[in-house]
Amino acid sequence: MISHILKLIWNKKKRNALMVLEIFLAFLVLFCVIAYVIFNLNKTNAPLGFETLDRWSIELDNLDSSDTLALQATIENLESNLLAQEEIEAVSFANFVSPFKNNNWTNGNDDNGFDFFARMVPTDYELANTMGLKLIEGRWFTEDDFNASYEPIVMNKYFMDEYYPNKSMIDSTFIIDGTKKIIGVVEAYKYRGEFSEVSPTIFFLDHKWENHATVLLKMKEGTPTSFEEKLSQIVNTTTKKTGNIIVNLEKERIDQSRESWMLFIALLSVCGFLCINVALGLFGVLWYTINKRKAEIGLRQALGAHSSDISKHFIMEIMILTLLSLLLGVIFAIQVPLLELTEYPKEIFYKAIVYSIAIILTLVFMCALFPSFQAAKITPANSLHED
Amino acid sequence: MIKLNNITKVYRTKTIETTALNEIDLHVPKGEFLSIMGPSGCGKSTLLNIMGLLDEPSGGTIQVDGQTISKYTSKATAQFRNKKLGFIFQSFHLIPDLNVIDNVELPLLYRKISKKDRREMASKALESVGLANRKQHFPNQLSGGQKQRVAIARAIVGNPTIILADEPTGNLDSVMGDEVIEILTKLNKENNTTIVMVTHDERMAMKTDRLIRLYDGSQIA
Questions:
Q1: Burial B78-105 (b: 16+ CB within 10 A, else e)
Q2: Residue B102 to residue A4, Cβ atoms within 8 A
Q3: CB of B166 within 8 A of CB of B196?
Q4: Fewer beta carbons below 10 Å: N end or C end of chain A?
Q5: What angle do CA B188, B190, B192 make, to 5 degrees?
């Protein structure tokens, strides 16, 4: 029966071409969207690496850095004024590479026996405590590290997995802008948000007055929003600036996450509409085809086909046509991982191919069911007479 | 062979009731070539459809080889049509997207027969109607007479015991019509195949063993 159906499909290739094209294009669009969504959702599987609950940040108004001593005094004053508040448990100073900022600082070389390219995070020795970074090996910076013979650095786990898999590098030297010493490994630090990509990251110690764009605060559990007003006054008075902005990092995380989800929902909705259109199109084409082929249905029944043979025939015909369209689509789609056309991991594309095939086959099967059952109900006497 | 007892067929709509067949009793013995004549709308095709189990009577019973067909399940009825009956239609009903041999093979698709055997049986059937050289042609490449011969090959490919022909010469000129009747007569004589043919053509009907006439759903001769 399959060879008979293949022959019918082949002999009607011109009439089937549009349907093949429609399924083929639907597959490609679905494949792209699913790959994109999987890629981004996979990012959320990796931990953020820092706490956002009861964490606030202050984006400082541009401080005058022409007088280094004055700046240093202002920063130290600010730190002690902030720590004097019982609502504030810890304070850390950062530059623009800080939570939920879209800034990036990268550096790399091939001096360590391999090529690498990493995100650089200048930090003070309070960041781990303030933001709750999780150390998985070694230790975080201390004040004494300013006097160490080799400048210390801390990597993220991704860096170590990528370049030193299954190997401890604590107390080993590493060349980046001179020789540095690896003192610790943190689990993660996806400072650009939950949907940002995990990248090799290197933390290096800096004086707090070198990084004064952002102040990160660890607040006492349940600190009310009303404290923002007092905080604002303290910061404005200390810095003698009024353009300081206080941000609740938990709220920021939720807002950013919502934005990303909205994009996915929009994409998936477009995809859903596309699938509905394809489904309606297929349904219409099948309905029309079956009406056009009433005489053939009657003939097949007269020649011995049972009504189940008729519905099976039509379902098989559309499913084989769909499989042929999908085969064509897979030939194109598989080139993306095989030729490494993007930086996405290959598995994402294989998954996207499997999911797209499953969705389209299910959709087509559902669309074929009703018209095929209607075809099976056609009575041979009437349909043969109608022709 | 075929025994119709008191067959009636009534079509009902909300407002009208039309009697297409009225208490038809008919016995077609094995090997008979029977023709049915009558004016348009007298119930000839309805009677043939009922004999071919393509339609159900409103009343009465159909017996074939002593077995009452109404007791068959829909699956058994389909199998019965496939193995015992062959159909020939006025408008040929060939599938335009299949070539001649694939059209002839069609009834065998619903049996458990290997592809090789199907090809052999279809080739043999085409040879018997003189179309062995047209196997790969498509229906639109054939004349009316050739199309009908393909339809006859399709009807006989499964070696049925009964052939039901609904105006097989209706769309053909007299020469082609004679050819078709000749083939049917040969099948009847050589294979002892029972043939029931509906026709408008008195000349064709006279070539058969027996002629019955219908008028307004009743048998008048």
A1: bbbbbebbbbbbbbbbbbebbbbbbbbb
A2: yes
A3: no
A4: N
A5: 50
Distance from CA of B62 to the nearest CA of A (A): 17
Mutation choice for A interface testing from B93, B100, B152 by most A CBs within 10 A: B93
Q: Look at the block and give the residue holding tokens 């016995």.
A: B27
Total of domains in chain B: 1
Q: Tell me the Ramachandran region of residue B192: left when phi exceeds 0, alpha when psi lies from -120 to 50, beta otherwise.
A: left
pLDDT (tens digit, 9 = 90+) per residue, B127-148?
Answer: 888 888 888 899 999 888 888 8
Give the N- to C-terminal CA distance of chain B in Å, as an integer: 20
Is the Cβ pair A4, B55 closer than 8 Å?
Answer: no
Q: How far apart are CA A354 and CA A350, in angstroms?
A: 6
Instruction: Give the gap in angstroms from C-alpha B118 to the nearest C-alpha of chain A.
Output: 12
- Pairing between strand B33-37 and B194-198? parallel
CATH number of the domain within which B213 lies: 3.40.50.300
Domain holding B156, by residue range, is 2-219
Neighbours of B41 (CB within 10 A): 13
Question: What is d(CA A159, CA A150) in angstroms, rounded to the nearest whole number?
Answer: 20
Cβ of residue A306 closer than 8 Å to a chain B Cβ: yes
Angle CA(A229)–CA(A232)–CA(A238) in degrees, nearest 5?
145
Regarding an ipTM greater than 0.90, the answer is no
Question: What is the pLDDT at residue B79?
Answer: 86
Write out pLDDT tens, residues A199-243: 999 999 988 888 878 999 999 998 998 999 999 999 999 988 888
